[in-house]
Write a structure and sequence with these properties.
The protein is an alpha/beta fold. The chain has helices at residues 15-24, 36-45, 49-60, 73-82, 105-115, 121-124, 137-146, 157-160, 192-198; strands at 2-5, 86-92, 131-134, 151-154, 170-174, 187-189.
Length: 199
């Protein structure tokens, strides 16, 4: 079996980092909840889409080292290695932020994976050759096909609902904050422990 897994907000948890970065820059008020989605929604509702875009660049680049892996994700990788299941990390990520400081977001993510121990192949079975940061959504979709994924795990329902999403690939929505409704189009799970039971 081959499984594809998204990276941002699926493996790496940015909720606290987005909140703290926004608070440090005085971009949000005290009543905004601690999550990436709440910070995003607050800034967008306030008409500050550009500010949100720039904040993403900072968090995914300069502050990524502050983001922990989601609870249970490392154990999931370990279980898949023991079970002979191949995992490919497949993400849609621009090389550099659209707005703001020019930071190499691909390099930052690779360093994060190494620092967190994901490239310990004896433990996780993951090598750099199976980590793909595609610069376009179309590239991500094609990579899912090229990698032969039978299951794909992502935190964005809109990506899983893409009309050209590869048919036959089982869709799993990772929804740790309970932000989305159930759907016939995907299986919604709230933790890596639940995903591990499914696999």
């Amino acid at each position: 079996m081959k499984i594809g897994v998204d990276f941002d907000n699926t493996i790496a948890c940015y909720d606290q980092v987005f909140y703290e970065a926004a608070r440090a820059q005085r971009l949000i008020t005290d009543d905004v909840a601690i999550s990436k989605g709440h910070v995003r929604d607050y800034l967008r509702a306030d008409g500050r889409e550009d500010v949100w875009t720039e904040l993403q660049g900072l968090v995914y680049g300069k502050y990524i080292s502050q983001a922990p892996p989601f609870p249970g994700v490392m154990e999931f990788f370990e279980a898949c290695r023991k079970g002979g299941i191949e995992i490919n990390i497949i993400s849609h990520k621009t090389r550099y932020p659209v707005i703001g400081e020019k930071l190499d977001l691909h390099e930052a993510a690779q360093k994060w994976l190494a620092q967190q121990g994901f490239y310990d192949e004896k433990r996780t079975g993951l090598s750099k050759e199976r980590v793909f940061f595609e610069t376009t959504k179309a590239g991500k979709l094609q990579r899912i096909i090229d990698s032969g994924c039978e299951i794909f795990i992502d935190d964005l329902p809109e990506f899983l609902a893409e009309p050209v999403f590869p048919p036959g690939v089982k869709k799993v929505l990772f929804d740790p904050n309970g932000s989305y409704p159930d759907s016939a189009d995907y299986l919604r799970l709230s933790s890596w422990a639940e995903i591990a039971k499914l696999i």
